[in-house]
Write a structure and sequence with these properties.
Helix content is 42%, strand content 13%. The chain has 520 residues and is α/β, with parallel strands linked by helices. It has one domain: Alpha-Beta Complex (Amidase signature (AS) enzymes). The relative contact order is 0.12.
Length: 520
């Protein structure tokens, strides 16, 4: 007759598991040190794969170890993919088959990537925009960009945290806060603002909890956290990357882009995720004309700044005279000149106050959000909520889940009060088109500019209302060690030129360093 195992038996089993886990972690740390996995680029990792010094499984385990150790502090990851190691094993098997005879694999093959938690995955992971209201919902299919990543053999490592609902629930919400993961922390200075809404995507790659990541931007949500967490962020032309399967905010402005430690890594990701998607047909068909034959890697040129005409519109940003940031920016302008760029200083962007304070963007966004979110929720296979009204009701009933009493939903209530695309919304759209045409576009064309340059992400509002692209590159650290970026913005479809400029600046300065995790 079988006897019940003793307490000592269970204790010994637990001890064996703990010892095995510690041994695995020690081997992981030793491998990481031997191969310098921290701060490793996609190119570095692919080289290690080809030389049989590293497997995708080992790399994935390294990042899972980093997440386990750092995420309780940083809150940059909401959840990890329970199938991540299986995907890594599959990548290793495919690489072994391709090696005999040698065959080329996509550049992201076997590379772990984190996805902002508003990007749908048809797997065991949740897609919730950081909210408990969508926990347990089931999406009908992968987001368009996720389908492309899977085809490229990337390992979907997990979901990155974000400012809940892409920072569109409560106007007073803190950057980087969401109900499911809590407050995201800037890894360079834990007391500093991580910005949003793609804060977790920036935090995680900055702290080496993933190789690369994806974020989304409606107005500043890639460019802002990229600068504040010392990573490279590309905000693509609207429609260049599919928005299908993305929990929407404002389809007129929403875009998906890479957030990585280097310009080259961001370009490698961009190459994979651009292109036509039948589930976002109108926007992606129109923007596909901008995709260059041969991809974007050809624009990673060390001398990419030579001959570029860069505009400086000083009325676009406030003065920080005497500060370290202001001095650094002026120094960077000199670097741009030394690298062969032609700088046109003291330009003036017309209608600036109207763009930032009276464009009609808020009105249009409210109406777009309600319609787009209701469509997204109705399309879910399983969901606790089916409309914005349901989400508002859920939030009212479950305040105890948030542990944040002051967290309201005034933006949700304003959106719920809208009634479709009426004359006022259409007028707002026309006004934003006019402001873009008479402001940014006119300035760029009249001065034959390749890009407009600003410190930080102060240009994001200008780029947002016109669907224009931008790239943020690490530009330094202030007196408290908090990172700041430099942003290059251009006309629709100008990604090739912006990549040349951003890469040229990065290679000339090489400012980015790993985070210090300092307090205060």
């Amino acid at each position: 007759m079988a006897t019940e195992p003793s307490l000592a038996f269970y204790q010994s089993r637990v001890l064996l598991v703990l010892i095995a886990t510690e041994l695995v972690e020690r081997r992981t740390v030793a491998l990481a040190r031997a191969l310098s996995l921290e701060e490793a680029s996609v190119h570095d990792l692919q080289l290690a794969f080809r030389q049989n010094k590293l497997t995708s499984r080992q790399l994935t385990k390294f990042y899972l170890y980093r997440i386990r150790r750092l995420n309780p502090l940083l809150r940059g990851v909401i959840e990890v993919n329970p199938d991540a190691l299986r995907q890594a094993d599959r990548a290793d098997r495919e690489r072994e088959r391709k090696a005999k005879p040698y065959g080329l694999l996509p550049v992201l093959h076997g590379i772990p990537i984190l996805l902002k938690d508003n990007i749908a995955t048809k797997d065991k992971m949740n897609t919730t925009a950081g909210s408990f209201a969508l926990l347990g919902s089931v999406v009908p299919r992968d987001a368009g960009v996720v389908a492309r990543l899977r085809s490229a053999g990337a390992v979907l490592l997990g979901k990155a945290s974000l400012s809940e609902w892409a920072h569109y629930r409560f106007s007073g919400a803190r950057n980087g806060w969401c109900a499911r993961s809590g407050q995201g922390k800037n890894p360079y200075n834990l007391s500093a603002d991580p910005w949003g809404s793609s804060s977790g995507s920036a935090i995680s790659v900055a702290a080496n909890m993933g190789t690369v990541s994806l974020g989304t931007e409606t107005n500043g949500s890639i460019l802002g956290p990229s600068g504040s967490n010392s990573v490279v962020g590309i905000k693509p032309t609207v429609g260049l990357t599919s928005r299908s399967g993305i929990i929407p905010l404002a389809p007129r402005q929403d875009t998906v882009g890479p957030m990585c430690r280097t310009v080259a890594d961001a370009v490698n990701v961009l190459n994979v995720i651009v292109g036509f998607d039948p589930y976002d047909a109108e926007a992606t068909r129109e923007a596909s004309q901008y995709i260059p034959r041969g991809g974007y890697n050809q624009f990673l040129k060390a001398g990419g700044l030579r001959g570029k005409r860069l505009g400086i519109a000083r009325n676009l940003y406030y003065s920080r005279s005497g500060s370290l940031v202001a001095n650094a920016f002026e120094s960077h302008l000199n670097t741009l000149r030394e690298q062969g760029a032609v700088l046109l200083d003291h330009l003036e962007l017309a209608n600036l106050n109207e763009i930032y304070f009276d464009s009609g963007e808020d009105l249009a966004m409210s109406a777009e959000f309600k319609l787009a979110l209701n469509t997204y929720l109705r399309d879910l296979v399983v969901s606790p909520v089916r409309s914005l009204a349901d989400v508002i009701e859920f939030n009212n009933k479950h305040k105890h889940l948030e542990k944040m009493d002051e967290f309201g939903q005034d933006l949700f209530l304003a959106a719920q009060a809208t009634n479709g695309i009426n004359k006022a919304v259409k007028s707002a759209w026309q006004n934003m088109d006019r402001l873009s045409r008479d402001g940014f576009e006119k300035l760029m064309r009249q001065n034959e500019l390749d890009a407009l340059v600003t410190p930080g992400h102060l240009i994001s509002g200008v780029l947002a209302i016109g669907g224009f692209p931008g790239i943020s590159v690490p530009a330094g650290y202030d007196e408290k060690g908090v990172p700041f970026g430099i942003c290059f913005g251009g006309l629709r479809g100008s990604e090739p030129t912006l990549i040349e400029i951003a890469y040229g600046f990065e290679q000339a300065t090489k400012i980015r360093g790993p985070p210090s995790f300092m307090q205060g």
